[in-house]
Amino acid sequence: MQNQLEMLRIFKTVAESANFKEASVRLGISPQSVTRAIKELEERVGEPLFYRSTRNTTITEFGKQMALKSEGVIEQVDALFQLNQHTHAPKAIEGSVKITMPSTFGRQYLLPALTAFAKEYPNIQLDLRFSDLIDNVVADQMDIGVRIGFFSNNRNVARRVNEIKFHIVGAPALIEKTGIPNQVNDLCGMPYTGLIDQNTGRMWPWSFANEPDCFPSAPAFISDDIEAELAAVLAGVGYGQLPDAICKKYIQNGQLVSVLADQAPAPWGIYVYRPQRGPVAERVRVVFDYLAKTLSEIKFG
């Protein structure tokens, strides 16, 4: 039988993700455990909390009220248990923390925050590994990982802290040459850029909101580095499907134009994760929470 606090924690995660499976990934437990906890909580409160179908999970009106009233309860209880930990001065926490993160994203968004952290906690040695490969944090002896995309490894404890939206973009000169694509089919025959997935060696297919994944045509430019792809798109080589984390400033200054906004793919989650193994060292917990907070506060759009 689940304790009430743990059931609330699971309920809160399902409410945030609107998906039982994704909630189980974020919590590092099985989907069956999530289902059991929600069922038991519904029996205790005497009301359904979610409408569930094979495709969708929708919170009920009662569930919304419960989520609103439980806001902050879990955090307050966690804070009580961590009172003793937080009475220690930063210098009392020491040791090495090994972190893996995507190359471009890590340098642009995490490196400044982590250098500031290193100054605040001089006795914690940060060992940063920049790679676009999906690391096995257990086999590679990593303490913490940051990943963008879809997370399905239930051997890790993962927290979804933010999301990145995608844009279909082209340089003004290219749009002048090809005309503005008004529907997905218009992209067929137009030059576009492709990104190689370093984990599989295959090119990422383009995704659309209301159309199946596809490759619009033969790519005019392919790379396994997203900065190289961005450079090609900026140069007018072809259209690109790029995350706003790297292309938003170019849209804002007019170097790129966003097209087919209603067909942009679903956002990708940003996750902070760690191995699911025994007690968590204080230094790892501090860095993990710092990364989660830092990433949750970034406004990409």
UniProtKB/TrEMBL annotation:
GO molecular function terms attached to this record: DNA-binding transcription factor activity; sequence-specific DNA binding
Keyword Transcription regulation appears in the UniProt entry: yes
Classification via Gene3D superfamilies: 3.40.190.290, Winged helix-like DNA-binding domain superfamily/Winged helix DNA-binding domain
Lineage top rank: taxon: Bacteria
Pfam families: HTH_1, LysR_substrate
UniProt keyword Transcription regulation, yes or no: yes
Keyword vocabulary terms for this entry: DNA-binding, Transcription, Transcription regulation
Record-annotated HTH lysR-type domain positions: 1-60
GO BP field: DNA-templated transcription
Family: Belongs to the LysR transcriptional regulatory family.
Protein name according to UniProt: LysR family transcriptional regulator
